[in-house]
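During the reporting period, our protein records have gained a structure token line. One record among many is quoted in full directly below:
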Amino acid sequence: MAPLRASVTVGAGVWVGASSTGNYAFVTGTGFPTQSTLKLTNNGAIVGAGGAGGSGCSSGYCSWSVGGNGGPALYAQYPLTIVNNNVIGGGGGGGGGSQVSWQSSVVAGGSGGGGGEGWGTSAGGGVTTDQPSYPQGHAGGAGTISGPGAGGAGTQSGMYPNQYSAPWYCYSNSAGNGGAWGQPGGASAAAYGSGCNGAGAYYPGGAGGYAVVGNANVTWSTVGTVYGPKQ
């Protein structure tokens, strides 16, 4: 079988995006005849999906979570020459959710992390609770191709129900912001205040997505702008 000489060009202003963090935006494929050559000229943007924000919790009986990892952009399964005249970028990681904070009857609700920047929309973290009368945390903002989402703001509580007076107060800090292209999401912060004595853990953001997987197969004729690691 004769070798294949294949050249693909992504036009200026064209976005090639992944449908989810578990998929790639661009894949070379395999099974080509011996001595085939592949070339990619990118004048547009090849980008991964952003990771979802971690969930927050506004009572002592629900869960909170770390941010989701950003998705990869390009998978070079076969030797490939790349002329990158614009952008190749993994999705941003989602921000970490913040937990409910309490000591004795002092309660401050946790919030959801922001979604990472990426193709499509990455969900901000929601807030769960089984105690709707408690002060509630805030959901995180969604990430889009225009930017990452912000983590939900923290809350303050006094002695239940809602007596906002020292020394019995407690703050649940903000959740983490989503990460920009190929960057990790931000971590949430631990709770603080005399009513909770700094109780409460913090949760990290998700990792930034790979710009390229299979980089050993890539010959970079022009590197251009690359967001995220190469593997």
User: Anything to note?
Assistant: Confidence is low (pLDDT under 50) at residues 160-164. The chain is about 0% helix and 25% strand. The radius of gyration is 22 Å.
